[in-house]
């Protein structure tokens, strides 16, 4: 791979608009192209961000010889089909969370990534936040003993609109795939993959989940209690409980700058680790450096973890009666 990693953006929506400015903090990376189903939207995005090329279809960017890696920011249900096409074209991938709309879809993409040897990573920015890195280091050093439980919540209050992406079943809407992925990934990062998933919640009329409460159970008695909601605002806090203390991850935990360490018999310790830019830069740096080193996976956000998280989300969706499917036409 060349010294400079050339990026393309697929899906010039709200999240892509937020991510693009953080490339200013990423050495050896340059965004050169954007793809949209609308040439007009692609042109406007390229003009706003000073990109060289604007493609009027997703398929066109796959044949762009000057793009090394694609940041996929389309709705969840479109990730699966596009990712498979991109891997066949030899394009490395950073795929927005949730990775796919279904567990089977995620398994297929992961299998294709491993078969082709093309770098692929889920854009779970939480794992790369400096404060979360500090938390993992404290846990690894035994600062709170053995981790036995994790609590996390993430919720927003959204006015129900059946045509909005968040409420559209065909686009992978619902609280689980949009917000639940954060709480599940956080728990999986610290506790590993659970043996049992119990979910309860409610649905919107379109068939997507409005809110979900998850209990993740482990054979050795460890547990995670998690909340995700599009029906009400939640603090966005997380707590990691160990046998000799606990760590608070202050709101909002999925991109925090502060954690508080509570050790048994000691004063609490406030630890601040601010992000670069808005906070997306850290995952962009990871992908860029992995590609420069010739890697095919991230050690921080490995494909096995993505698949484990997607499986938990899939089990929860099934228990709630949500029937997600991957989009067929993603050109």
From TrEMBL:
Residues annotated as domain Gfo/Idh/MocA-like oxidoreductase N-terminal: 5-121
Locate the GFO/IDH/MocA-like oxidoreductase domain: which residues?
Answer: 133-247
Q: Where is the signal peptide?
A: none
What keywords would UniProt list here? Oxidoreductase
Q: Which family does it belong to?
A: Belongs to the Gfo/Idh/MocA family.
Q: Which PANTHER family match?
A: OXIDOREDUCTASES (PTHR22604), TRANS-1,2-DIHYDROBENZENE-1,2-DIOL DEHYDROGENASE (PTHR22604:SF105)
Quote the protein name from its UniProt record: Gfo/Idh/MocA family oxidoreductase
The organism's taxonomy opens as: Bacteria, Bacillati, Actinomycetota, Actinomycetes, Geodermatophilales
